[in-house]
What we know:
The protein has a single domain (27-194), classed as 3-Layer(aba) Sandwich (Rossmann fold), CATH 3.40.50. The chain is built from six helices and seven strands, in the order H-H-E-H-E-H-E-E-H-E-H-E-E.
Amino acid sequence: MCEKENKGPAQSFAGKGVCPYRYAFTLLIPLRNLILSPRKLLKMLSLREDSQVLEVGPGPGYFSPHVARATSRGRLVLADIQPEMLDFAKKRMEKKGLKNVSYHLCNGRDFPFDDNSFDTIFLVAVLGEIENKERYAEEFRRLLKPEGLLSVSELPGDPDRMEKEEIIRLMQEYGFTLKGSYGSRKNFTLLFRNGSCK
Ligand SMILES: C[S@@+](CC[C@H](N)C(=O)[O-])C[C@H]1O[C@@H](n2cnc3c(N)ncnc32)[C@H](O)[C@@H]1O
């Protein structure tokens, strides 16, 4: 599952591939707000109180509590490929008393949710780690409601970071329309609409 596991700590921390769960604590450092804060992300996601949201690759859930609070009458599903990351996120969410959250262990291929289940799907520093990006893009298209929003953020310093152009090409190929592009070349969020522009 994690190609970094056979490497030494320094190498695995900086290397490519699925971020090892033993470094999950590094994803909770508040200094991250200088790069992308939960507040800034929330503003771009334009959530409603009753939004149905899927976060793919939440890790320990740096952004998740903020999203759960913003969708207090809706639902947030956290879906990660590492059970340890999901456990970590779950403990944090429960400690904060957040109840509108459920957890899904990904199989790297498909998601057990009905078509048109979500208003919003978001990923932060995840897409580059996903092995089968095409399959996920296909699933995102199926899972999002018509006019639903897909948000992809990439951050500087991430060895798996994808370029904006690569992401736009991939998502357009799977039927998404670019709606917004925020930030710089190395630190950005792309917003896509499910389907064609109106
Ligand atoms: C660099 S961490 C980012 C965590 C979080 N989004 C954040 O910004 O703090 C990447 C996360 O994506 C998860 N991940 C990698 N490949 C995945 C896949 N195919 N499906 C779901 N999650 C995946 C990893 O397990 C890890 O938790």
